[in-house]
Amino acid sequence: MNEENPLDEIENEPTDSLINEEVEEKTESTEVEGKAEEKTEKKKQSRSAYRIEQLNTQLREQEREADKKLAEQAEELKILREQSRIKSEPDPDNYADHDQYRDDSTKWKKQEDAKTRQEIRNEILEENRKAKHKEEADKMAENYAEKKREANGVYDNYQASEDKVIEVLRSHGDFAAQIQRSILRAKHSTAIVNYFGENLDKLQELAFKSPEDQAETVWDLNKQLSAKTLKTKSTAPNPTRSEKGGAPRAKASTGGSKHTYIKGETHMERAKRLNGR
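The structure corresponding to this sequence follows.
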């Protein structure tokens, strides 16, 4: 009677299953090791981020302490200078020590010289500021005058709108100064003036706002009006083709308003006609 040998089962067992089990064990081991490494790396990053935040906090605190110390030193220096400053010109009768009188007199003269130089510098800066402001104001006024000549031919009664706007702005004095400056700086200044001339309640309301809100409102209005095409009136006939293929320039109509827009007319010709030249 033949007895079965346990080794025969091992020898006859399929090798594929053994290989698959070994591969699966290695894969699981690799995944575990990868997760462990990832966890370790995250811990390192977390510790690094925490350390960086600690250093940044310390640096900010040191900067605040340094700024505070500088401010205190500046205040102390200011007090010392004020204490050492001579309030009035030294009088020799008030000094028993001639050398002290001489030192104080020299210091007094230096103080007065420095004060005079500072006053001169301030005057020069103020004159330059006024000159620059005047130059800017003249340029804005010139640009507005040119736009106004064009606006007279675009709007039915632009002068009346402008007069109304000026009256309102003057009634509010300095409180409306920013409105005027913002309008003059705007690209579509005449369109804004015409708008406010037809909507005085909007202008009155704007005059009671802060200068910042006034400037922002005018700027927004300028953007809104820039999106609109200015419409002009025209009584000129449509140009016809000549035999040579060119379009002859339309002549001015003898009737109607002098502000009538004539198609084909150049800007210079129109300006001369509007000014009666």
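Residues 84 and 107 are 10 Å apart (CA to CA).
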